[in-house]
Amino acid sequence: MSTTTPSPSERYRASAERAAEAKTHLGAFARTLSFELDDFQRQACKSLQEGRGVLVAAPTGAGKTIVGEFAVYLALQRGLKAFYTTPIKALSNQKFTELTEKYGEANVGLLTGDTSINGDAPVVVMTTEVLRNMLYADSDTLFDLGFVVMDEVHYLADRFRGAVWEEVIIHLPSEVQVASLSATVSNAEEFGAWLDTVRGDTDVIVSEHRPVPLWQHVMVGRDIVDLFAGETTFDEIAPAGSPAAAAALPLAPSPADAGQRGFEVNPELLTLSRAESQLNFQGRFGHGGRSQRRQQRQRYGEKPQQETRSAVRRASRPQVIASLDRQDLLPAITFIFSRAGCDAAVAQCVASGLWLTTEREQGIIAQRVDEAGQDIPTDDLEVLGFWSWREGLLRGIAAHHAGMLPTFKEVVEKLFADGLVKAVFATETLALGVNMPARSVVLEKLDKFNGEAHVDITAGEYTQLTGRAGRRGIDVEGHAVVLWQPGTDPAAVAGLASRRTYPLNSSFQPTYNMSINLLAQFGRPRAREILESSFAQFQADRSVVGLARQVRSREESLAGYAKSMTCHLGDFTEYARLRRELSDAENFSSRSKSRARKSLNEDSLSRLLPGDVVDVPAGRAPGFAVVLSSDHSSREPRPAVLTLESQLRRIGVDDLEGPIAPLTRIRIPKSFNAKVPKSRRDLASSVRNALRENRPPARGNSRNNDFGLGSALQNQEKKIADLRRALRAHPCHGCSEREDHARWSERWWKLRKETDGLVRQIQGRTNTIAKTFDRVCDVLSAYGYLESTGDGQHRISTDGQRLRRIYGEKDLLISQALRQGAFDDLDAVEVAAFASVLVYQAKREDRGLRPRMPSVSLETAVDIVVREWSALEDVEEQNKLPLTGEPELGLIWPMYKWARGRHLQDVLSGTDLAAGDFVRWVKQVIDLLDQLAKIPGLDPRLARLCAEAIKLIRRGVVAYSTVG
């Protein structure tokens, strides 16, 4: 690749620019770094320095957080505040630690709902929800705010929490500069255009380049094989053009498609895949004991087992890590989409005798682990799995998932970052921003359970996970390894690896809390305008523009078609309508007859009784037969019969030409055995005798009628006859150009249907957010949170003011629980237990029968909240709103025991709760209780009880864990 030598004037200009930059804040900031800024980083920092907002979209590990850190630096230099927001508490804690080391404890604070450290500092790290709550409360902390960094801003696509990001972006004061940091998304320009609309000047800076090259591999057995043929890295498999062009490519290309896209799948993997497919084909359809057993199982109604076979012996988890170690590919993160799987992987590696650490490293690890555990109550160490966790760490092996104690996760992150832990088995939550880069990333599977079903991971998720591979400034290259599984398609893996972008789609929906806060601050007309400025509506409106353009084009074509079908004899539009109605009626009649015949045939089969002699008109063995067993319950009845040739078979609708009725009846002896040839012959002889004697069916048997087929369709035939007469009587029927006009009419009608469909789409997308807001307001009015003032306006009631300070997915239900006195008879312990009902979300498989409550007061409180939830769900269904989640009772007993001071082992005994999960839920209960205690005008007794309850449950491992 040739490079052009810059001219003297270009060199002089570049030198002058560098000299000018050195005198700026950006130049001073750059001098504090140990590396040169990349072009995209410098460009984004310049935009911030010049007073504009930025959207930075870059691959994981590219260093986009440098832009956020420059925003913090600028704020401090200018005497302003900076807020650094993150989607998860673990990431907030990590960023807090980094910024504290850089700027000192006095200058940096942390706010995560349950944790508050130095909240008035000039730099505060927080979860995005905390900033949203500040904005609605008009907090004094917002004074002098100059910059907000929104890390992982692509999280706004999250269907549960994503709306919070949009709320913050919309409501931040206009003078605040926003630095939005995102993974590479295919519609960055669209998102940037929205930011420009709601925030003012915003520069969109997209980088597709990874600073550390990423190589893609597949581990086949214990061998690591390149995914692509030749020397193909992450940057080189990028399709030409924009990220949007990349996103439009097929996800699982064929090998030929792959070649056209600039990369070639390794032929060795394709050969292996074909061999495996052939092996399974032979196993499924070849001759042999296994195939025959499978056919027998299916014949007798047993569920067939999935028997995918592979020519490759899959490596165990310890063998995978050992293979990586031999090839100098550690440290590595292995993503397993299961907490139990992560813990099992560590146990398997320990049991195999795998050691990845030296004696010196083991000494350092032991010291750090023991320091971390010294403040944990001794009684809790066993239930927390401390000793097995410590054993794994000493070997350089650890798990990382949400079920772990936050302190344990923090230790793992630090040991891994320092190169002391070499192999981490993690769930996908680690990929979300937590700074744990590795030399290699391993994916055990390319599918995961999303809470409802097993689904394939998306190209965006693959990019996010594998983006952890390659440590900038440490590794020359990073490595992504997919483990070969039976049925692996190398071309599909290549499609995931080559499609690095995914679209950012809004999940914004007005909630009760959001709506009432908007009404309180801005009034209803302005609140609707604000909601219509959301990214969700922006995307809907953009799609409407394209649809409207299509509608205009089609309307012009319709006018031309209408002109071409004009007839001088009369109104051809009316004549065309009659033709269309006649055609529809004839088609409907034909389909109705067909359906009626099939239905009547099925009905006649289901009416047959053992002993009925019938004449089967068609099929494999037409002729006379006797029914041996009836089939009433089946959707498509297939009664068993015996033919005159003594053959056993079943008859179905395909054997009939019309409804079947018995010709006569015979008695089947009780001794008849269909398996005995002589029994079959004797019964066939009885059938022949009955036919010769021409015995009629039993008296009163009405099963041989015509089943009413003619009368059922009589009205339809009359309608067809009437339409035919009206058509012949119409003036246009005699036109010499009638068929020519009719062809234009058919085109007009087809295009009219398509156009009307587009118009309906436009109507459905226009003002969708505002319409939802109106329905939310209707619910709030019905519950008395909004009161009519008589002039068409609404004011917030006292209960509505209380709802403004309740944040969470069950905001209105929590408010109703307060309103209906659910908390009135509870003490502090019971308040803590009851609060868990309003925040806890059980896994679907964990939901069971309602447990017995610890006290009568709690039983009453739970009855109230369940009754209120049931009524609220009915109202939400009527108003076509998302349904509020059901109150969950699975945490009541553990929380009750914890609030009463029981040991952690006693609390978790008999539950499936992991210690880390329990700590996380306790912190969410603390967050809710803290919200309730601070509600203006709340009953002082309840506020005091909430504060007491917080003290009771913020103890032991909960108090020791600074984040969760």
Automatic annotation (TrEMBL):
<dbReference type="Pfam" id="PF08148">
    <property type="entry name" value="DSHCT"/>
</dbReference>
<feature type="domain" description="Helicase C-terminal">
    <location>
        <begin position="316"/>
        <end position="519"/>
    </location>
</feature>
<dbReference type="GO" id="GO:0004386">
    <property type="term" value="F:helicase activity"/>
</dbReference>
<dbReference type="InterPro" id="IPR001650">
    <property type="entry name" value="Helicase_C-like"/>
</dbReference>
<dbReference type="Pfam" id="PF00270">
    <property type="entry name" value="DEAD"/>
</dbReference>
<dbReference type="InterPro" id="IPR027417">
    <property type="entry name" value="P-loop_NTPase"/>
</dbReference>
<dbReference type="InterPro" id="IPR014001">
    <property type="entry name" value="Helicase_ATP-bd"/>
</dbReference>
<dbReference type="Pfam" id="PF26090">
    <property type="entry name" value="SH3_HelY"/>
</dbReference>
<dbReference type="GO" id="GO:0070478">
    <property type="term" value="P:nuclear-transcribed mRNA catabolic process, 3'-5' exonucleolytic nonsense-mediated decay"/>
</dbReference>
<dbReference type="GO" id="GO:0005524">
    <property type="term" value="F:ATP binding"/>
</dbReference>
<dbReference type="GO" id="GO:0016787">
    <property type="term" value="F:hydrolase activity"/>
</dbReference>
<dbReference type="GO" id="GO:0003676">
    <property type="term" value="F:nucleic acid binding"/>
</dbReference>
<feature type="region of interest" description="Disordered">
    <location>
        <begin position="677"/>
        <end position="710"/>
    </location>
</feature>
<feature type="region of interest" description="Disordered">
    <location>
        <begin position="281"/>
        <end position="317"/>
    </location>
</feature>
<protein>
    <submittedName>
        <fullName>DEAD/DEAH box helicase</fullName>
    </submittedName>
</protein>
<feature type="domain" description="Helicase ATP-binding">
    <location>
        <begin position="45"/>
        <end position="203"/>
    </location>
</feature>
<keyword id="KW-0067">ATP-binding</keyword>
<keyword id="KW-0347">Helicase</keyword>
<keyword id="KW-0378">Hydrolase</keyword>
<dbReference type="InterPro" id="IPR011545">
    <property type="entry name" value="DEAD/DEAH_box_helicase_dom"/>
</dbReference>
<dbReference type="InterPro" id="IPR050699">
    <property type="entry name" value="RNA-DNA_Helicase"/>
</dbReference>
<dbReference type="GO" id="GO:0055087">
    <property type="term" value="C:Ski complex"/>
</dbReference>
<dbReference type="InterPro" id="IPR012961">
    <property type="entry name" value="Ski2/MTR4_C"/>
</dbReference>
<keyword id="KW-0547">Nucleotide-binding</keyword>
<dbReference type="InterPro" id="IPR058621">
    <property type="entry name" value="SH3_HelY"/>
</dbReference>
